[in-house]
Design a protein that fits this description.
The protein has 168 residues and is of the alpha+beta class. The chain has helices at residues 4-19, 49-67, 97-103, 105-108, 117-135, 152-160; strands at residues 23-29, 40-46, 73-75, 82-86, 90-96, 113-115. The chain has 6 helices and 6 strands, in the order H-E-E-H-E-E-E-H-H-E-H-H.
């Protein structure tokens, strides 16, 4: 089962795709028995090679800024027709429209289920709520805080010092 952080990373990557006007954004939850590589595919396409590069740059920048994570590998950025970004828990595929129709990753992964961004965020909220309920501890009564006072032996030592005499 993916962690809350991987859900958050995936949602941030999908939001970065939306911000850069990516088309047909899909999240595929892969079958664990069939795919040992990753848990999710984030698949989208841009209208041209420059937009694909801009989408991949935005995903990388946002995940670096918000979570401090970098992709383990990036392939195809120079050509821009199919850019692959590997974040271990999920893999981002950014296609040109022609390449996406040609390769058809959705058709190849028939056992994968398509998840919308809303479903993924609801699943994340449920996971966070269940984690909080498991780790919730009863709140202990707060004791009245005492004002800081120097310790008695320090008070005696400070009061026993002689004032400095001036030499004339």
């Amino acid at each position: 089962m993916p962690s809350t952080e991987s859900y958050q990373l995936l949602l941030a990557a999908a939001a970065a795709c939306e911000d850069k006007k990516a088309e047909d954004i899909r999240i595929l939850a892969l079958d664990p028995s069939e795919s040992g590589l990753t848990d999710y595919f984030l698949i989208c396409n841009g209208t041209n090679d420059r937009q694909n590069a801009a989408i991949s740059d935005e995903i990388e920048l946002r995940l670096k800024r918000e979570f401090g994570t970098y992709p383990n590998g990036v392939e195809g950025r120079r050509q821009g027709e199919w850019i692959l970004m590997d974040y271990v828990d999920f893999i981002v595929h950014i296609f040109s429209a022609e390449k996406r129709a040609h390769y058809g990753l959705e058709r190849m992964r028939k056992s994968a289920t398509t998840i919308s961004v809303a479903e993924l965020s609801a699943e994340l909220k449920n996971l966070i709520a269940s984690t909080r309920s498991r780790t919730a501890k009863p709140v202990a009564k707060r004791h009245r805080q005492r004002r800081w006072q120097p310790r008695k032996h320090l008070q005696r030592r400070l009061s026993s010092r002689r004032p400095l005499q001036r030499r004339l």
